[in-house]
Amino acid sequence: MYHAIVRSIIRTAFRTLSQGKNADLNRILQLFSSKAMFSFSGDHALGGQRQGTTDIRKWFERFQRIFPAIHFKVDRILVSGWPWNTLVTTFFTVQAPLPDGWTYQNEGLQVLRICWGKITEDHLFEDTSRLQDALSCLEKHGLQEAGMPPL
Fold first, then answer.
1. CA-to-CA distance for 98 and 40, rounded, in angstroms?
2. SS3 146
3. What SS3 state is found at 102?
4. What is the value of pTM for the model shown?
5. Is 135 exposed, middle or buried (0-12, 13-18, 19+ CB in 10 A)?
6. Which helix (H) or strand (E) holds 10?
7. Pairwise CA distance, residues 33 & 20, whole Å
8. Which intervals hold domain SnoaL-like (predicted)?
9. Which of 46, 80, 86, 99 is the 20 to 30 Å CA partner of 118?
10. Are strands 118-126 and 32-40 parallel, antiparallel or unpaired?
11. Which residue pairs, CB below 8 angstroms and at least 24 apart, start in 46-52?
């Protein structure tokens, strides 16, 4: 039963993020412990590692500005462990329209560690070549933040 509840929470979080610029970040951030570690693979505007909900919020705010109409589809969620040490692996696909008429599409993997209902670690992995192409397109069309270094 516990694992089903965790899967439901993860699906709801991805549905919330799929609201793009209208997503309620507080709903997402309340899932994190105050000292959580968050990382996104790659050396680009969304890449890098940050710690604590203040820095994680800054990442999500940038994410919303870069991809205001993003959509996630959760393909599979694997949950193991107990409430004091839960490991969650989520396989997802993502797409977002780009200003040149192309649609950014990618596959991703998220690995979470949850302790007593709070995310303590969140690691995101996508094909960074596809993501970099999308970020370059956005920058060429005037979204300078898409070409900035990681926060």
1. 21
2. helix
3. coil
4. 0.94
5. buried
6. helix 2-17
7. 23
8. 22-121
9. 46
10. parallel
11. 46/131, 46/135, 46/150, 47/128, 47/150, 48/150, 48/151, 50/151
**Class in CATH terms, 2-136:** alpha beta
**6, amino acid identity:** V
What is d(CA 64, CA 120) in angstroms, rounded to the nearest whole number?
A: 22
Concatenated DSSP letters for 12-67? HHHHHHTTGGG--HHHHHTTEEEEEEEEESSSSTT-EEEESHHHHHHHHHHHHHH-
Query: pLDDT digit string (tens) for 44-66?
Result: 999 999 999 999 999 999 999 99
Q: For residue 134, what pLDDT is reported?
A: 97
Average pLDDT over residues 82-95: 98
Residue 20 has pLDDT above 90, yes or no: no
Q: Where are the domains of the chain?
A: 2-136
